[in-house]
User: Fold this.
Amino acid sequence: MKVAVFADVHGNDHALDAVLDDIEKERVDAIICAGDMVNPFPGSERVWRTLTARHIPMVRGNHEDYILACHAPASDLPIRRNPQFLPVEFAARRLSTGTTAGIRALPMTFTLAGPGDDDVLVCHASPEHTSRSYCTGIDDDLAADLSRIGPKTIVGGHIHLQWQQLWRDKLLVVAGSVGLPFYGSGVKAQYAILTHRRDGWQVRHKSVAYNHQAALHDALNSNFLVEGGPLAWLMFDELLTAELRLVPFLNKFCPTPRPGSLPEWQAWVKRYLRAIGRWDALQPLLEGHSRPVAPAGGSCPLSGPPPGRGRKMPQAADGGQ
Assistant:
């Protein structure tokens, strides 16, 4: 039996196209998506439609949680009044009502029946949490969660790297990221192939090239950098460079308590980008230009008409909005 698992598309439909094309060549028996299909990039609706049209099972990730929080009835939710979450609002506004309803119905986990009852459990970060990964450490509570799980192989995403480790009687796997890979990935979309052999499941991590320029072009032309606020600047630079920006900024640079107003957030993000040598590359984009500047040694020109894409977007069952 041969299975493909991918995660963390984040609305990058161009990267998803490349991964699905590569999976077709692998001739797998099943395909599963381990969460964070949408948010923040403008292809989120097309990503959802593509996955649902192909009947690919999906589980809920933390970015689906953010989208649902935007649609929650309570008007005083922090996500509604904090400029930090403007990228989420940008994505949520562009999703159809049918897509939002589908996200609300997503399960936390999906169990794939394997040969000889050697099942595979797919989750986002860990079986009980959409934001807490077994890759970053297992305390007593997480150990208890993992021990309660019947399947011996657990595959997730969330951390945007490719990783695997034996823990007690479990094989823990992180499939990497399709749409926003980090850690020296060279902006290649990532996923995992699991093959069942006599001694159990074996993992092969894959990275595939995709139309990176088209993804950048879509983000620029969608007004993402304006409507998404200063946190969108960091996310766009992550897409451009395949290097972490948002988490280091929030964990090590941004003050606590957090800034209160949009101008304060803008000022702190500018300081951070200047400190890491990326402000000069991004400032022209924020002033209305259309050519992102890659870090030293890279090249990401954007000129001419929008780059072409492969698959056509299937029509949503509800017609979309």
The beta strands are 2-6, 30-33, 110-112, 120-122, 153-156, 162-167, 170-175, 189-197, 200-208. The two ends are 39 Å apart (CA to CA).
